[in-house]
Design goal:
The protein is of the alpha+beta class. It folds into two domains: 160 residues, Aminotransferase class 4, branched-chain amino acid transferase, N-terminal domain (D-amino Acid Aminotransferase, Chain A, domain 1), CATH 3.30.470.10; 166 residues, D-amino Acid Aminotransferase, subunit A, domain 2 (D-amino Acid Aminotransferase, Chain A, domain 2, Alpha-Beta Barrel). It has eight helices and 18 strands. The strands form two sheets. Strands 1, 2, 3, 4, 5, 6, 7, 8 and 18 form a nine-stranded mixed β-sheet that branches. Strands 9, 10, 11, 12, 13, 14, 15, 16 and 17 form a nine-stranded mixed β-sheet that branches. It is globular. The protein binds pyridoxal-5'-phosphate. Pyridoxal-5'-phosphate binds next to helix 6.
Length: 353
Amino acid sequence: MKITITPSAGKKARPSDDKLGFGQVFTDRMFLMEYDPKQGWHDARIVPYGPLSLDPATMVFHYGQAIFEGLKAYRNPAGGIQLFRPMANMERFNRSADLLCIPRFDPEFALLAVKKLVDLERDWVPSAPGTSLYIRPFIFAKDAFLGVRASSTYYFLVILSPVGAYYPEGFAPVKIWVSKSHVRAVKGGVGEAKTSGNYAASLLAGQKAHDQGYTQVLWLDGVERKFVEEVGSMNIFFVVNGEITTPALSGSILPGITRDSVLALARHWGLPVSERAISIDEVFSAHESGALTEVFGAGTAAVISPVGELKYGDRSITIGSGKVGPMAEKLYKSLTDIQYGRSEDPLGWIVPV
Ligand SMILES: *Cc1c(COP(=O)(O)O)cnc(C)c1O
């Protein structure tokens, strides 16, 4: 399939690198392709960024058949641009598609489209420390129809947004609220898909966490509400007796690429690692005995997010005196050094644009 490129209408003013937030500014162009049962994925094009015109009956508005991905383009010290494990995102995107009855696409072609778009927009990749160009591919149901079924037509888009440093004031721990009353996903559901409805369903618990001064929710399993699953947009790690441990992928946890990278790096370093069921009671008793030394989240946005406090019911614990632990620090530095091309790429993760 060919990608048609429409000349960009004009250049928007680019905010300076120190004024970038997250997901507020978008570049001059976007990628678009469409699906129908006759032609499959077709009409791939890069066009000026702008609104879509959609029928009010468009199925995505009513039944939420939509999936997305999130990855970043980084500027390396030589001024070049590189992606971090982009094929892993494309493969996960197709697995999300399967769970939502969305037709699969050719991951090689989708990566080519992302690279072409980023290449055309390369001036938009910021260069100040910690900044990057966030890449958001997404697919949604396009039929104008009010019956409940899978749509027969779809849109596949990629938009780009320059984003600021996640830790402008330095690498700092966050406070996390463990929800007893809300659950994110259940086994047999769509928890392992990056699908819009999972995020809509998480908002109320997120608000309750915020109201009490916590930044994110730590979800427990949807059945027993006993085992730790993940945070809103990050997977979770614990360091217990020197071992790096994270909940095993159970079917209701999003299989994070940062999660996988943390496990791979730790194994590459020869550190003890485990993926298993971890109950919230075990976390609290490991804290009591002194075995729990660190807790941190892992996801594309923050890379590593150290957790300084966990609140569960009326119990609250401070981890590592509320300071950033050595494992979180080492992983953050190593992963970002690879992503930004400041160090070797021992596991072959970097794809140049
Ligand atoms: C995207 C996401 C993650 C992290 O995945 P990465 O590939 O590491 O960015 C974790 N949990 C949820 C719910 C997510 O949506």
